[in-house]
Amino acid sequence: MIQYHEPLFRPPSEARSLIIQITLGCSWNKCSFCEMYTSKQFTARKEEEVFADIDAFLPYADQIRRVFLADGDPLVLSTRRLLRILDKLKTTFPNLQRVSTYASPSNLARKSNEELKELYEAGLTLLYVGIESGDSKVLECIQKGETFETTIEGLNKSKAIGMNSSVMIINGVGGTALSEQHAINSAKVLNETQPKYASTLVLTAHKGLEHYKNRFLGEFEELNQVQLFTELQLFMQHLELEETIFRSDHASNNLVLKGVLGKDKERFLEQIQLALDQPSLANLRSGFLKGF
Ligand code: SF4
User: Fold this and answer.
1) What is the CATH number of the domain that holds 274?
2) In a domain, 46, yes or no
3) Distance (Å, rounded) from C-alpha 84 to C-alpha 122?
4) C-alpha 26 – ligand 1 centre gap (Å)
5) pLDDT tens per residue across span 246-275
6) Number of domains in the chain
7) Which residue has the CA at smallest separation from atom 3 of ligand 1?
8) Ligand 1, atom 2: nearest CA belongs to which residue?
């Protein structure tokens, strides 16, 4: 078996996928809320090492259907290099159905339409994009290196050539002062891009609130539980999605929402209202009622 370079992360829905690390860390590594790769220096792994990792799974080649390319932003690699890796995966695993990776809107903007099409045709069909917020001010405060416009551009560029996106928004990431614009503009980004999958999670300050505040470019006041639900409610009210599979079931979410938007929008809004009005009756995770 292969030796992974820890820490290793993957989206929850890739739990049963083979993970191949083609880069280590994140080339950006600045987002205020993210501690995933702060212990790692960004490196593009040598091709022979990546190929050796893939070959290590030859005994299970027939069983491998999904591969997730790690770490933070493999799309920073040249298209030629990525195509060689995708080709190696395809020739090694005859039943491969899907290759996915994390991507940022800037990664996507730097690739031409032709390059993205080549990657898609070579098997890269799903991108996990941490939008975090659709609001440019919030994005500036959290040092995301994106704006409302670049996020929409990146997502629509990959969508136009057939790639699916799974996007994520962070409830509470902008603090109390920016909560309303965060909710509304995040909904607008989703409306403009109509992603295949969307999810929300709640801001978690892994190294403590003071550490997050120090990395947040501006004043940050944490949202309490009622404010978090109110922000989620406003976000949901502004969503106009046609067919997006929506999940808010990360461990950080106090209220679990699962369904398809738009058809389940009214049901979600009822669940959020119930959580605000009568938290004891809502489908809240145990232990969170103490926040009221
Ligand atoms: S781009 Fe992604 S992995 Fe990199 S620092 Fe930001 S959130 Fe973390």
Assistant:
1) 3.20.20.70
2) yes
3) 9
4) 6
5) 999 887 888 899 999 999 999 999 999 999
6) 1
7) 72
8) 72
